């Protein structure tokens, strides 16, 4: 099954990620069939939305809608190009519409995107990631959950755009999670470089989901190695929101549910592999998970934090988030917790929209940001 899947990916031109050098060839023989699926997700698997493209004034624009069907492109190359465009949004200077309210995205780097209310060409320095036109509004960095879809992230981006924020989003792939040294840590270094080399004069808010807690922990590890140089990054963050944040103890539960949300059999198989992976590859993987978790619990930030959790969430558990909250409060961090009796992992906004918006906006009002627009609150609830 895995061989056929890899052959199919190769037939459409995908570059299947190779295991890192320290693993050796033996691992490839031990990998279960679903590891090929993880590689394909990391490379960019097909998404359910259709795409249509057009050109206006020399700028390439792609519109995405579940209601608009695009006829199949002829040839494997065109088919794969469309898949990558839909899933990864990797092409530079390409603006992509991700929902009916016309939210557009543009790539800042391979792992950082800018969400805007209308397409615009944002120029940057390729080496430093410094934007040539600096943000003149508050900014938010959304640290997404594993395997998040653009149309779902767009709903959160719209909340902040309606309030006058510049919205940036970052993510990691399953492969980057499995191999932190060659994966997540490179993304973390890129995030820290971006945050350091841009001014964010009106403040920066972090809004993290699920595995985003681990990614931010890796960012803190990177910052701690040269704290005098990166202190400016910490000073710019004025608030943080953690929705369904997952700790290292739940990684073997969260990854299978993210990749196979409707397949309990594959969830069980991948959970067993994740437990094996964390035991067999302690140095190249698990030791870095532990260090990131320690930094996340210690937290170099001292700005107010909001935790959004649920008693029925098996990944971002109440117990794990309570431990983080208690640790932060001992360090002098002001924390607020909203805990629902029943709500799915990273699904609180969809399940309890009104409460979610009220709690989030109340938290943002405490951060000395420009006053939130009342009509933005009404639109968010609608």
Description:
The chain has 16 helices and 11 strands. By secondary structure, it is α/β, with parallel strands linked by helices. The chain folds into 3 domains: 1-44, no CATH class; 47-87, no CATH class; 100-381, Rossmann fold. Mean pLDDT is 80; it is low at 1-29, 44-77 and 79-100.
Structural key phrases:
Rossmann fold; eleven-stranded mixed β-sheet; 11 strands; disordered N terminus; DUF829_TMEM53; AB_hydrolase_fold
In short:
InterPro entries: AB_hydrolase_fold, DUF829_TMEM53. The chain has 382 residues and is an alpha/beta fold.
In percent, how much strand structure appears in the residues?
15-25%
Q: Quick one: CATH class of the largest domain? A: Alpha Beta
Could you say which structural class the secondary elements and strand pairing correspond to? Answer: alpha/beta
Mean pLDDT: 80
User: In the CATH scheme, what's the topology name of the largest domain?
Assistant: Rossmann fold
Pfam families: DUF829
InterPro entries: AB_hydrolase_fold (IPR029058), DUF829_TMEM53 (IPR008547)
């Amino acid at each position: 099954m895995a061989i056929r899947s890899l052959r199919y990916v190769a037939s459409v031109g995908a570059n299947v990620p190779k295991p890192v050098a320290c693993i050796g060839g033996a691992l490839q023989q031990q990998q279960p069939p679903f590891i090929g699926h993880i590689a394909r997700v990391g490379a960019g698997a097909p998404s359910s939305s259709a795409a249509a493209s057009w050109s206006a004034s020399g700028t390439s624009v792609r519109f995405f809608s579940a209601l608009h069907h695009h006829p199949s492109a002829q040839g494997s190359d065109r088919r794969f190009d469309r898949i990558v465009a839909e899933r990864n949004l990797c092409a530079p200077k390409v603006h992509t519409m991700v929902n009916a309210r016309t939210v557009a995205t543009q790539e800042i780097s391979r792992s950082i995107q800018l969400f805007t209310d209308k397409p615009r060409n944002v120029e940057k320095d390729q080496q430093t990631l410094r934007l040539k036109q600096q943000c003149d509004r508050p900014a938010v960095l959304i640290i997404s959950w594993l395997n998040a879809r653009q149309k779902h992230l767009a709903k959160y981006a719209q909340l902040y755009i309606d309030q006058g924020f510049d919205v940036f989003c970052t993510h990691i792939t399953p492969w980057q999670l499995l191999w932190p040294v060659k994966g997540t840590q490179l993304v973390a270094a890129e995030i820290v470089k971006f945050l350091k080399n841009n001014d964010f004069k009106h403040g920066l808010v972090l809004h993290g989901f699920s595995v985003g807690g681990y990614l931010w922990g890796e960012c803190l590890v990177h910052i701690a190695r040269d704290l005098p140089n990166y202190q400016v990054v910490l000073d710019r963050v004025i608030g943080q929101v953690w929705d369904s944040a997952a700790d290292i103890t739940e990684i073997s539960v969260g990854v299978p549910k993210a990749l196979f949300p409707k397949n309990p059999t594959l969830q069980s198989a991948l959970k067993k592999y994740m437990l094996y992976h964390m035991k067999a590859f302690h140095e190249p993987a698990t030791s870095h998970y532990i260090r990131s978790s320690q930094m996340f619990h210690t937290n170099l930030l001292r700005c107010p934090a909001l935790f959004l959790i649920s008693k029925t969430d098996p990944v971002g558990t109440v117990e794990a988030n309570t431990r983080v909250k208690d640790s932060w409060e001992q360090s002098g961090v002001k924390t607020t917790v909203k805990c629902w009796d029943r709500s799915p992992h990273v699904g609180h906004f969809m399940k309890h929209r009104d409460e979610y918006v009220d709690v989030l906006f109340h938290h943002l009002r405490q951060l000395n940001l420009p006053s939130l627009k009342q009509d933005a609150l009404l639109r968010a609830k609608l």
